[in-house]
Amino acid sequence: MYELELDNGVIVDTYEEVILAHDLLITKNINDIDYNSIEKDNKYYDCYYRALKLIKVSAKSRKELYLKLGSLDYENSDINRALDQLEKQGYLNDMAYANSYVNLKIMTTCYGPGKIRRELEQKGIAQSVIEKVMLQYTRQIQREKIDKIVNKQIRANHNKSNALLKRKIGNDLVMQGFYREDINSAIDNSNFSDDKLIMQKEYEKIKNRLSKKYSGQELEYKIREKMAQKGFYM
Prior knowledge:
234 residues; mainly alpha; Arc Repressor Mutant, subunit A; 4 domains; two-stranded antiparallel ribbon; 2 strands; elongated
């Protein structure tokens, strides 16, 4: 930025673009109209350079950047003008942003296509753009990711019945945005171990814990209640 000293001694911070646009390299008298125009341009370039700084720190969609600048009290007209300019210069590109975003989520998360789509929509990405960038998340990749999640949860299970575990896995994957058809297929084709041993271990563990407080029929009722919560019905 540059400092512009007015005749009354007031120092105004301004930008190179404003100096060139108003021929301020040459000493000249600035009337009220000139000053108002300079001030207006200053506000715009302040918005523009703030936007540029924000997207250099971390990539953003146009909507995200618009909302951030709005929270900083810039005028809507200045915000839209700045964003239009950044798009023309290639600094702001929803297609490139969305493409990188999808790739990152595929590589680093357990998100399904539905969840990624919802997040892109929240970021203001156009549906036509979403359709294009989501092509990289093929059904094959989705199924491989589902299989990995299902097998991991099977290995980690130590206290749930197969029926309860399948419901939990299914619900978790739906919440993550995967398709129910692919989820059911993965569960049906996975090897779930015999849960009789788990049932016996859970029964003994629950019985030992509850027998310190209950006895007789009340104990049996409490045991059945706890076992049912884990998907085991006696």
